[in-house]
Design goal:
Blueprint lengths: L2 H12 L1 H12 L11 H17 L3 E5 L3 E4 L2 E4 L3 E6 L7 E7 L19 E3 L4 E3 L3 H21 L6 E7 L9 H8 L9 E4 L11 E6 L1 E10 L5 E2 H4 L6 H9 L23 H9 L4 H8 L9 H9 L3 E8 L10 E2 L2 E10 L5 H19 L4 E6 L6 E2 L5 H14 L4 E5 L5 H9 L3 E3 L15 E3 H20 L3
Parallel strand pairs: 5-8, 5-9, 9-19, 10-18
Antiparallel strand pairs: 1-4, 2-3, 4-8, 6-7, 7-20, 10-17, 11-15, 11-16, 12-14, 13-15
């Protein structure tokens, strides 16, 4: 470990309280991108973030992405916050991506604490709050890489460019076109891309990730009566939208997680013996899943099968029903309109449009069999392709070495079950190697209640990000 790297690590260790305080400020801004009423808060978060990076010595700019229609209103999309520091032609240039928007969160959802107030549990060493691990903690890790070097008066080992968006949790609307437009502009001269927006496979051993599943998100609408009806007056007399919806959605997936829609599983790449061995050798146990979910509900007790279900096979999940009665108590209403929401996680060699076509065909056939007088509409959000990178690249070599620097172990090489569609956009439009270098653990509960980031992961994860830059600078192409 070189002298400047050691100084950087010591600085982070000595400023733990500052990192926690800054994360508390970020979590306090409820930057929920999927709700029109919260859009001013998303913009506020972007402005706050830009100011932080300016104070850390970066040159910044914001870039508007246009408008969208959300909740029946036309509103501005959150801007891209761009930051840059360093222009030394003798150094490599790394592009860092992150997002400053978050998922919705209410105390009534089952949170033990206020979701937009960071709570530090001294006993467990956990920092609870929406966005703590996804993705405000990692973004602030990068911020403190800059702040540490500025405070210490030592140069960064590489040039850095940052691209932060405010719509990742809502499909990254507008960002793909922006990246394509700026491939030879703001993002020119980039040598590699690093993203810290995923998690360890378990809770003990760090990992480096070279693959992500894509996603296709669907909304199935069933409409019937002109208004909600009383079941005591109209029950049995009319075709009920909820009944149609449940019948159709029950044909999508088995309780064991097998996708039942024809034309989906047939697209998946064949499993090779070499790939199978990778899952056998990963440092992982079923108890890691049990601890993360607070249950013993895995679809298999065989480690490789569980890992492949997360990483290399598609999955279909039912997410919710809009328009249905969901409050406590008993209400005998027949909903006039319901919308079922579900998604399919995509893997190589699946083609998003072929998946969308197969789902629509299946839904139309199922609805026709009902002989219902209701009306049906199935729509899909813009899908994201799966991504798989070559780990035999200096970008990954640097990440492996940095992980050993900080954690003292060689990380597992994993593929992630989640989706970050913009990852593939960066890889395609910039034609550069993309790396996922996670900060958080598998049990952080991103998108769920009581989302957290372990303080140790926050601190060591920040040290890892900085050390990765030193290892990048030490590698000769």
């Amino acid at each position: 470990m070189i002298e400047n790297q050691a100084k950087f690590i010591k600085y982070i260790e000595e400023h733990k309280s500052d990192l926690v305080k800054t994360l508390a400020e970020a979590v306090a801004i409820p930057s929920v991108s999927g709700d029109a009423s919260y859009r001013p808060q998303v913009r506020k978060m972007g402005e706050w973030l830009e100011k932080q990076f300016q104070e850390a010595g970066a040159k910044t700019s914001t870039h508007e992405l246009g408008k969208q229609t959300l909740d029946g209103k036309e509103i501005d999309l959150p801007p891209v916050v761009y930051a840059q520091i360093g222009d030394d032609s003798s150094k490599k240039t790394v592009l860092v991506y992150g997002h400053y928007d978050v998922q919705p969160a209410l105390k009534s959802d089952g949170w033990n604490t206020e979701p937009f107030k960071l709570e530090e549990d001294q006993k467990t060493g956990c920092l609870y709050g929406r966005g703590s691990t996804d993705d405000k903690g990692p973004i602030l890790g990068w911020l403190y890489v800059l702040l540490a070097h500025k405070s210490l008066g030592i140069p960064l080992p590489v040039n850095l460019k940052f691209c932060f968006e405010g719509m990742e949790e809502s499909g990254s609307v507008g960002l793909e076109d922006f990246v394509a437009k700026e491939a030879k502009g703001l993002f020119s001269g980039v040598d590699a891309v690093c993203i810290s927006d995923n998690y360890w496979l378990g809770t003990v051993k760090p990992c480096v990730t070279h693959g992500l599943r894509g996603i296709a998100y669907f909304k199935l609408e069933i409409k019937g009566p002109a208004r909600d009806l009383h079941s005591g007056v109209f029950g049995g007399m009319v075709h009920e939208p909820m009944t149609d919806l449940i019948k159709i959605m029950s044909s999508f997936v088995s309780p064991e997680g097998k996708i039942l829609i024809p034309g989906i599983n047939e697209q998946v790449a064949e499993l090779t013996d070499k790939e199978r061995k990778v899952y056998d050798e990963m440092d992982f146990s079923i108890s890691d899943v049990d601890n993360a979910t607070g249950s013993s509900t895995t679809v298999s007790d065989h480690k490789p099968d569980v890992l492949m279900a997360r990483m290399r096979y598609p999955s279909l999940s039912l997410h919710g029903v809009e328009g249905a009665f969901a409050e406590p108590g008993s209400k005998t209403v027949i909903p006039a309109r319901v919308v079922g929401k579900f998604s399919i996680r995509l893997v190589p060699d699946m083609q998003p449009q072929k998946v969308v076509d197969a789902v629509k065909k299946h839904v139309e056939e199922q609805f026709k069999q009902l002989n219902s007088k209701n009306t049906m509409n199935i729509s899909a959000d813009p899908p994201g392709k799966p991504w798989l990178a070559d780990p035999n690249h200096w970008n990954y070599e640097a990440a492996f070495k940095a992980t050993q620097d900080i954690y003292g172990v060689k990380p597992d090489l994993t593929r992630e079950g989640g989706s970050i569609p913009i990852t593939l956009t960066f890889a395609d439009k910039l034609d550069k190697n993309v790396l996922l270098l996670p900060m958080g653990r598998s049990d952080d509960g991103a998108h769920s209640t009581n989302e957290k980031l372990d303080t140790s992961n926050y601190i060591k994860g920040t040290e890892l990000l900085g050390s990765y830059l030193y290892e990048v600078s030490a590698i000769t192409n």
